[in-house]
Structure formats: C-alpha cells, structure tokens
Amino acid sequence: xxxxxxxxxxxxxxxxxxxxxxxxxxxxxxxxxxxxxxxxxxxxxxxxxxxxxxxxxxxxxxxxxxxxxxxxxxxxxxxxxxxxxxxxxxxxxxxxxxxxxxxxxxxxxxxxxxxxxxxxxxxxxxxxxxxxxxxxxxxxxxxxxxxxxxxxxxxxxxxxxxxxxxxxxxxxxxxxxxxxxxxxxxxxxxxxxxxx
Length: 196
Hints:
This protein is of the alpha+beta class. The chain has helices spanning 32-35, 66-75, 83-92, 95-104, 107-111, 118-129, 150-160, 165-175, 182-195, and strands spanning 4-13, 16-21, 24-29, 44-53, 58-63, 132-134, 140-142. A 5-stranded mixed β-barrel has the order 1-2-3-5-4.
C-alpha cells in the first residue's frame, strides 16, 4: 500500500493532480477540500494516500489531512458507497460537517451532495453512527484516532480490523492495567475476543 506521496506538483486538473517523486509521476484523485489547498505547479507537496485496486484499474486517492483519509476509508466500507461517492462527499462537505449530519440525522444536507440520494444518505447515517467517536467539547471525529499511546494505537488497529469503537474500548480495558506494547495489547485483546 502506498501511504503517502511527497514530491513536486507536475500537473493539476480537478480532481486529478500528478506528483513527481523520484522520477515517477503519481496520478492522484483528490477531494476538492484538498485540491483547493494545493500549491502552484512546480511546488513541493506531501499528500496522504489510499490505493483502491479494481479489476480494471489501480486508483490512488490523495488527502491533505489524516481526518479526510480516515473518513474516506470509513465511507468506502459503507454498502453502496464507492470511492466516487466518498470523494464527492469529501468535496461537498467537511469532515466536521459530515459528523454533524450523522449525529443530527440530517438526510437533506447529505442529499445535496451530487450522487447521494435519499436511500444512500439514510444508509450513511445508520452505518456511520457507530464509526464516529466523541471528542472533548462535543465534537466528533471518524474512528481510528491518531495517537501515540499503545492503547490508542491498539484501539485504531482493532477498529481497522472491523471491531466497533465500543467493542475495541471494551477489549482493551479487559486486558487490564500494565505496561504493554501496542502489539501485546492487540494480541491480548484478540485472545480475549476469541474466548467470548
């Protein structure tokens, strides 16, 4: 998997940007929120990426922030939502506004995004509700919080494996106190889940 690309912008044409790095030109598709923040052609840029492998193509998506990439990855796991709709959502609504729409069940705001109909919006609200994690101050972010502690890294790994945020919390708490590495926490949490 290609996690990020750093290099010189060789070309820009919404939603595509070509970044030259090490003699290779990487073609990325980016949401408008990222695209509008890109510097001029010839400038150095660093984008986080997600690679989608299809039968007919390998498509690399670029993001200006971890929050955007995290939301994109959560969106494409929703039934009926592919990378194209996920990119449209990120282009039409901010990560914070999307979380607010899910919390308030605002179907009409989501249907204003091109390509998102009423049924898709309702499905997004239902399926994304459990993937949002409350943050201090009442804000919410998409699951897999960035963190440098073994507990938060283990939590992120468990969510990435398909556990709901509440389940991941419970499994990590069940490991008990102690100084554990991220790998040890994950191993013990998975052992605990297997015993249930």
